[in-house]
Amino acid sequence: MKKQNISIKINNEKKEISVLPNELLINVIREEMGLTGTKCGCGMGQCGSCTVLIDGNPVLSCLTLALTVDGAEITTIEGFERSDGTLDKLQESFIDNSAIQCGFCTPGMVLMGSDLLSKISSPTEAEIRAHIKGNICRCTGYYSIVRAINNAALR
Ligand code: FES
Ligand code: FES
């Protein structure tokens, strides 16, 4: 198979890369770009740990062909902090509310939480739970994650 060139903007940086037609976005992000904050849990669209934002919308990078993001703007957890290098209020809230244990689900949870807060500034608990229902956490029991998103909305 022949590689093809694509242009993307990832975490505000423009990149020209060559990808195979069957190459998954998660592998390009993690292995070629070294952005290992994006996690691969199941590799089949079931856990949400590979979530990234593409043109502002959450997408499962394990189900996305890299070729299809030509021209897109991608945000991974590495691009989520503020421009001065400090943590975003949602990341701070995850820490303050003990919503991180092993941390494997955290990048996907933070990106989904941010997507929710961009649409609903003050979500109910039910809305938070509905929005993160595709993201699996094996450690926290979800309560602290819901509380972190809720408290971030109040900051
Ligand atoms: S690794 Fe993509 S949904 Fe699980
Ligand atoms: S903190 Fe371990 S999977 Fe969520």
Please tell me about this protein's structure.
This protein is an alpha+beta fold and 155 residues long. The protein has helices at 25-32, 89-96, 106-119, 125-131, 143-154, and strands at 4-10, 13-19, 51-54, 57-60, 73-75. It has a five-stranded mixed β-sheet, covered by helices on one side. Strand 1 and strand 2 form a beta hairpin. The longest helix is centred in the last third of the chain and has 14 residues, at 106-119. The structure holds FE2/S2 (inorganic) cluster (FES) (2 copies). One FE2/S2 (inorganic) cluster is lined by residues 40-43, 45-50, 60, 62.
Offer a concise description of the structure.
The chain is an alpha+beta fold and 155 residues long. Helix content is 32%, strand content 16%.
Task: Write out key terms for the chains shown.
155 residues; alpha+beta; Ubiquitin-like (UB roll); DNA polymerase, domain 1; 5-stranded mixed beta sheet; 5 helices; globular; binds FE2/S2 (inorganic) cluster
